[in-house]
Amino acid sequence: MAKTCLIIKAKRKPKFKVRAHHRCPLCGRSRAYFRRFDMCRLCLRKMALNGLVPGVVKASW
């Protein structure tokens, strides 16, 4: 779990657009963030296994 102050800071609109920092809105994790799904890899995996992310299926070959 990320620090609360960093989560709040990431939600604020930055002074300049290039200073924006991506964070997972569910857990606050800053690393391994997927822009396409707007969440980190851990939350994405958890939600995909529960079937909450449409269009994502478990790979099998």
Provide a descriptive summary of the structure in words.
The chain has 61 residues and is mainly alpha-helical. It has a single domain, classed as 30s Ribosomal Protein S14, Chain N. It is 28% helix and 7% strand. It has two helices and two strands. It has a two-stranded antiparallel sheet with strand order 1-2. β1 and β2 form a beta hairpin. The termini are far apart.
Count the DSSP helices: 2
Architecture per CATH nomenclature, i.e. the level-2 architecture: Irregular
Q: What do the pLDDT scores average to?
A: 88
Rg from Cα: 14 Å
Classify the secondary structure makeup into a structural class: mainly alpha
Fourth-level CATH superfamily: Ribosomal Protein S14/S29
Topology:
Layout: H1 4-11, E1 33-34, E2 39-40, H2 41-49
Antiparallel strand pairs: 1-2
Question: Any key phrases for this structure?
Answer:
61 residues; mainly alpha; two-stranded antiparallel ribbon; 7% strand
